[in-house]
Design brief:
473 residues, alpha/beta, FAD/NAD(P)-binding domain, 5-stranded parallel β-sheet, 27% helix, 3 domains
């Protein structure tokens, strides 16, 4: 960024945008800090939208009329007093629609406001929006924002049969939440296993069995060809010609990146709309940085470029551009990269670590590999997966499993990254919690639940490992 910083604009009022604002204030920036958000709400936590916001578990109040989720303490990223202390110029319910780098201005549109915001530095954190099905029938929803969650929750009260299209993170969590409140649920996925983009098919198979054991009708390997009904959705037509009655549909079929406003500005974009960044989150335009879901940067450890759609990456990457406003000690900036968790010493390292060459030696007992190996997912990995899935303090796999191998697929380039494995394991924990009340006494889900209550990491992982083996045998 420029030597003199008086005005910084953060485009995007989500996780990444808020963390960028906090980091700037922590580093002593005292100038004008403008946070522009398309939604009418202050920054909030998105992960509960597909879980607690739909089931009401852990929320007080657990439901309400229109607007009941707005400002709910269960969704707050920070207390209002903390956000007020950042002295932000909030521009909520306002869209960024263009960028003029020569004039250093961001064009915005909002209720009663249409103009430009000047900046010395710009942080692009506009994220993504849910891809909507090609239908205008009522009763077909997506789930990305707080308002989406309110609409889906309200529909739960009157719907009979829910059809979820897409068995990614959002779709699978919505299906589990709907079953938890007693709804009939059909989960449709065009791929042969859920979460096919981020985990090994065997992990996807376990998740499939968990859903089926708990009453979800899972349809794999078939897509949706049409939504049918008279004014409101009544059926979902599948590609094989069959039809499923539906009074409510929730689609989790990916996202569109909110970067259209950057086209023609000189900021380089890939074909998918992701922003081309360097190792420090800088874009092709001076004084403009990009963070979060839309940022695509070269990973100094794995080679190639990556883009992550995960809240942990959004929160921690959001803190990086402010750090580059001033050089590190000695006048040299150090490239940083996300890593996947506990080190060989058992300590959890920061998700942002100094870049270094790929590891050639194992960091956990019994794991043998070389830099170029591409072995399949095995028993030792199942044990480590179990430990990560059962114990929230272990949010990720040890480095050889989490970093060098995508559960047997090797490091990904472009749109995926091994860190998403940790999100899958978090989803396993969520599914176990959601399904625990409805599990039959002898089911493998019940065994998972029992093993997860163990206090010893080693014994708990071993119990989970035995349950996995018995479940798949």
């Amino acid at each position: 960024m420029s030597d003199t910083l008086n005005e910084i604009v953060i485009a995007g009022a989500g996780m990444a945008g808020l963390h960028a604002a906090e980091a700037l204030r922590e580093r002593g920036f005292e100038g004008r800090l403008t946070l522009v958000g398309e939604e009418a709400h202050r920054p909030y936590s998105r992960p509960p939208l597909s879980k607690e916001a739909l089931t009401g578990v852990g929320l007080d109040p657990a439901h309400g009329g229109p607007g009941w989720l707005a400002g709910h303490r269960g969704l707050q990223l920070r207390e209002d007093s903390v956000i007020d202390g950042l002295d932000l110029d909030f521009r909520l319910d306002t869209r960024v629609v263009g960028l003029d780098p020569a004039a250093r201005e961001v064009r915005v549109q909002g209720p009663g406001e249409e103009g430009s915001l000047r900046y010395d530095g710009l942080i692009v954190a506009t994220g993504a929006r849910a891809r909507r099905p090609d239908t205008d029938l009522a009763g077909v929803h997506v789930l990305r924002t707080l308002d989406d969650a309110e609409a889906v929750r309200a529909a739960f009260d009157s719907a009979g049969h829910l059809v979820v299209v897409g068995a990614g993170f959002v779709g699978a969590e919505v299906a589990a939440s709907a079953r938890a409140v007693g709804m009939e649920v059909t989960l449709i996925e065009a791929a042969t296993t859920p979460l096919t983009r981020v985990v090994d098919p065997r992990i996807g198979g376990i998740l499939t069995d968990l859903h089926r054991e708990n009453g979800v009708d899972v349809r794999l390997g078939v897509g949706v060809s049409a939504f049918e009904g008279s004014g409101r959705v009544e059926r979902v037509r599948l590609a094989d010609g069959s039809a499923i009655d539906a009074s409510l549909v929730v689609a989790g079929v990916g996202v569109h990146l909110n970067t259209e406003w950057l086209r023609g500005s000189g900021v380089a974009l890939f074909e998918d709309g992701s922003v081309v960044c360097d190792r420090y989150s800088e874009t092709s335009v001076p004084n403009v940085y990009a963070v979060g879901d839309l940022a695509n940067w070269p990973h100094p450890r794995y080679g190639g470029r990556i883009r992550l759609e995960h809240w942990t990456n959004a929160s921690e990457q959001g803190r990086r551009p402010p750090a580059t406003c001033s050089p590190d000690r000695g006048g040299r900036r150090s490239p940083r990269c996300p890593i996947s968790g506990p080190t060989s010493t058992g300590r959890r390292s920061s998700s942002w670590a100094r870049a270094r060459p790929p590891m050639r030696s194992p960091s956990c007992t019994g794991h043998r590999r070389t830099e170029s190996s591409s072995r399949s997912w095995g028993v030792g990995d199942a044990h480590r997966c179990a430990r990560a899935a059962l114990h929230p303090t272990h949010h990720a796999l040890p480095r050889p499993v989490g970093e060098a191998h995508h559960l047997g697929r090797g490091p990904r380039r472009g749109g995926g990254h091994p860190v998403t494995v940790t999100a899958c394991l978090g989803h396993v924990r969520c599914a176990l919690r959601t399904f625990s009340r409805s599990s039959s006494p002898g089911s493998s889900v019940r065994r998972y639940r029992k093993s997860s209550s163990l206090t010893s990491n080693t014994s708990g992982a071993a119990a989970m490992h035995r349950a996995l083996l018995s479940h798949r045998s």
